[in-house]
Predict the structure.
Amino acid sequence: MVGKICGTGSYVPPHVMDNDDLAKIVDTNDEWIRERTGIGKRHIIEEETTSYMAGQAALRAVEQSGIDPEEIDMILVATSSSETIFPCAACEVQRTIGATHAVGYDLNAACTGFVLAFNTAQAYISAGFCRTVMVIGADSMSTLIDWTDRGTCILFGDGAGAVILRAQDGNPVCMAAHSDGKKGPALTQLSRHRKGWENEQNKESYIHMDGQGVFKFAVRKVPEIIEEVLEKAELKLDDIDYFVLHQANRRIIEAAAKRLKVSMDRFPVNLEEYANTSAATVPILLDELNRDGRFREGQKIMLAGFGAGLTWAACLFEW
């Protein structure tokens, strides 16, 4: 059995901060940000929380799917910015949607999180442990960045996306995932719950990133893992209808497409509207494409994520 997507949903906060707004905080401008990242604006939480956004995305996925929430066996939330250590965001989602029979837990793999959670759900379904799994990516990145650091504050936004997988007969799902802990210092965010953190400089508890290092890592590893999955599936690049990549930077996506010699027409991008919402980028984009009617039954979709850890993962499945 494989997990087929039967519903998608997403939520982004209504409060929008565009590039001109950022120019009032740091030395930047709209042209500079767009040229280097492809980002035009980002949605930022005010009263919302990560688990609230996850719950709203989940409700929309349930509504679209038409299933009874009590049919959901498991809820997986990929996040690195939950407002609470426990209860986990997944249990908060369970309460919000009334999935009384589901077990839930969170998975933290930063921007790679949703793809790894999606792969995990597929493994549970393939093993016969679950029949219906809710997979969510949700992050409030605005709570983790230093708004005076131009190198990071221009990149991120907040949001959540969800998919519901149901067990069906179908072609096998092909997956791959890797980590390189030696290169972890390229992208870090220290815990604010360490003993004595309040006596440290506040900047130490914000995201720190070697932008060039992460860029070089992504443009090399994303094409490699896509080709790895295609080899496992015994398919070619031409067989893939859409490559849904983590939305970190338009230049990264364009570089990956160029290395693979695939037209950007098959690499959908929504960075201009949402910026980098970490684990939420892939499911938000899936929901947009789904609701726009871009997907057709039997189409082959390649997911790929990459981020802190360093981690990277991919998954090939049929719509």
Notes: The first strand starts at residue 2 and ends at 11.
